[in-house]
Amino acid sequence: MAILGVESAIFGVDDIELCSKFWTDFGLTGVSRSAAQAVFEVASGSKVVVRRRDDASLPSAYADKPGIRETIWGVDTAEALDRLLADLGRDRPIHRDADGTAHFLADDGMPLGLRVWNKRAVVSQPDAVNAPGRIQRLNLHRKWRQRAIPKTINHVVFFARDYVASLEFFVDRLGFRYTDHSRGAGAFARADGTNEHHSIFFVSTALPMAPDEPGFMHIAFGLEDIDELMLGVNQMDMKGWKNSGLNTLGGLSRHRISSAIYYYFDNPNGGEAEYHADTDYLDDNWVPRVWDWKFGSLLWATYTPSFWRGANIEWDMKFDKDRSSLEPFRGIRQKGSMGPPPSEMIKLKA
Ligand SMILES: [Fe+2]
Q1: Which residue among 67, 168, 231, 282 has the highest number of C-beta atoms inside a 10 angstrom radius?
Q2: Domain range holding 276?
Q3: If you measure from the C-alpha of residue 273 to the centroid of ligand 1, how many angstroms do you get, rounded to a whole number?
Q4: pLDDT tens digits for 31-69?
Q5: Ligand 1 mean position, distance from CA 264 (Å)
Q6: Is 335 part of any domain?
Q7: Contact at 8 Å (CB) between 191 and 202?
Q8: Is 126 a domain residue?
Q9: How far away, in angstroms, is 26 Cα from ligand 1 center?
Q10: Burial of 174 per CB tally in 10 Å (0-12, 13-18, 19+)
Q11: Are strands 177-182 and 289-291 parallel, antiparallel or unpaired?
Q12: How many domains does the chain have?
């Protein structure tokens, strides 16, 4: 074990005041506030740091729009951090802060950091579920909450020009575990010291709905169960925070890949913020799979997205023990290509 998940997600934004209100309404706990930055945290100790987009302390990549500018991954011990840096230092510059935090760029140019992290244990007790003939709560009502309180940062998602190369940097150089592949659309990996289905997901810029440039897509926060999630959705809605993607993956929905219940909000900090519950939790016994991207996207959705309507979607999932499903998708692919045979792909990579 070495990397325990996202220690800090550092955002560059246009309006710190508005963006701080968003995170407060979302249920994060304020830690500190100055003219230059606002810091929030969740129960695990993961932090959201909000700075202005033109803050000179931020890396230059992804500066063209609001979003995560640097992801700091938490490492369990100083020895593990040294081991990771000894390898990374072979082929890239590493800058160390006075507190030991290391900053560097991934092969695709993504700004990353590593620091030792004393991750806090999180306590959850989702209510047992009743069903006909299967009584798990007798004369016992479900939990009443006053608001949703995110417990963890479960994952971050970025658009990438070559999602296979971006993923493999995390697998080969940071010890992440490849977990699943949405064929032609993107690939998932889990930090070795956490059990959530994925800690990072790279989405291809070749997707029709994706931007042309790499950059931040969304960040997901773990909640106890669907009731906490929907309470949070209702309260965010009443405060004016909306989901404008109702024809894509909007509304309360459940992914087939990862099994997670989710709801996205448009986020003034950039991209979307996701409430996330009942995901699959994995360990190293997990065997990765490759999915038709339409089949893998959804188990069900509140608003059926256009790509699910009228299509005869194949129940297409195979195991991918040796990562071989990724091979045909190496390189930068043309916009709109969604899994044609390799010979039909136009590779623009030099
Ligand atoms: Fe997500």
Answers
A1: 67
A2: 3-121+147-324
A3: 8
A4: 999 999 999 999 999 999 999 999 999 999 999 999 999
A5: 8
A6: no
A7: no
A8: no
A9: 16
A10: buried
A11: parallel
A12: 1
217 Cα to the center of ligand 1, angstroms: 9
Any idea what the CATH number is for the domain that residue 221 is in?
3.10.180.10
Partners of 326 in beta bridges: none
* Rg of the chain, C-alpha, whole Å: 20
Q: Is the pTM of this model over 0.90?
A: yes
Q: Is residue 91 part of a domain?
A: yes
Q: How far is the CA of 169 from the centre of ligand 1 (A)?
A: 20
Residue 43's H or E segment, with its range, is none
The separation between CA 67 and the C-alpha centre of its own chain, rounded to angstroms, equals 13
Query: 235 with 148: CB under 8 angstroms?
Result: yes
Q: What is the mean pLDDT of residues 140-164?
A: 97
Query: HSE-up of 202 (CA within 13 Å, CB side)?
Result: 28
Q: Is 185 within a domain?
A: yes
Calculate how far, in angstroms, residue 10's C-alpha sits from the geometric centre of ligand 1.
17
Q: How far is the CA of 146 from the centre of ligand 1 (A)?
A: 25
Strand partners, 276: 222, 262
Rounded distance from Cα 254 to ligand 1 centre (Å): 11
